[in-house]
Write a structure and sequence with these properties.
Length: about 220
């Protein structure tokens, strides 16, 4: 979206509705990204014009809880005939358009990135979290998507793979920290040498993760 099509987002009042509708109807209107605005901000199917401009319009209503979301997955599916790529801040079920196309209700949650960022910073012993480290974390995430995921309009990895996701993100953060000269932990410095592969680094990261173990307690009778 160009600067000319960015929209001011005051939280209160009627202004955002009219301005967002106008922005959605104009050229270059996709993706539609809404956060911290009143629910049902989209009032007259502004999602329809983007489908005329883009084969797969992006619709990201990120407010939560569900009752405050600017747009539901069902509304996005209906307005774009199931072609929307949808991400939400609140959990929604997947939605099926009249054409039979299914819109995946991707939930944009920071837990895909933040645990890996924290782990990578901790393993490095870094005293700062740089922009490069955060960018590396963000860029690591979509690399975990498979062709099947993309075909199904998934834009985040599977929740069940969160440990593997966090290891990939942490390794990327560590590489960026090394490039920034922010690595202080001696063991991390050894693992970030050029002769250490990404696979070896990720395996080391996994070995440093906390794994909860629920050890059974055995009660012994008094003697």
């Amino acid at each position: 979206m160009t600067t000319a099509h960015r929209v001011a987002w005051p939280v209160h009042g009627e202004g955002p509705v009219q301005r967002q509708n106008a922005a959605a109807d104009g050229p270059g209107a996709a993706p539609q990204h809404a956060q911290a605005v009143p629910p049902t901000t989209y009032t007259h199917h502004p999602r329809a014009p983007p489908q005329q401009l883009n084969e797969r319009p992006l619709i990201f209503p990120l407010s939560n809880p569900t009752s405050r979301s600017e747009c539901t997955c069902e509304e996005a599916a209906a307005a774009t005939d199931g072609r929307a790529i949808f991400a939400c801040g609140s959990p929604f079920p997947d939605a099926t358009a009249a054409s039979g196309r299914v819109v995946r209700a991707n939930q944009g949650n920071n837990f895909f990135v933040f645990p890996g960022v924290g782990l990578g910073v901790w393993l490095c012993g870094a005293s700062v979290v740089s922009d490069n480290m955060l960018i590396a974390a963000a860029e690591a995430l979509p690399k975990l998507l498979t062709a099947t995921d993309l075909e199904a309009a998934r834009i985040y990895p599977r929740v069940c793979d969160i440990r593997s996701v966090s290891a990939h993100v942490a390794a990327a953060v560590m590489r960026a920290a090394a490039a920034d000269g922010a690595v202080r932990a001696p063991e991390a410095k050894r693992m970030l040498q050029p002769d250490v592969s990404d696979e070896e680094l990720r395996a080391w990261v996994v070995s440093k993760m906390y794994w909860p173990a629920y050890v059974p307690l055995v009660t012994r009778p008094h003697t």
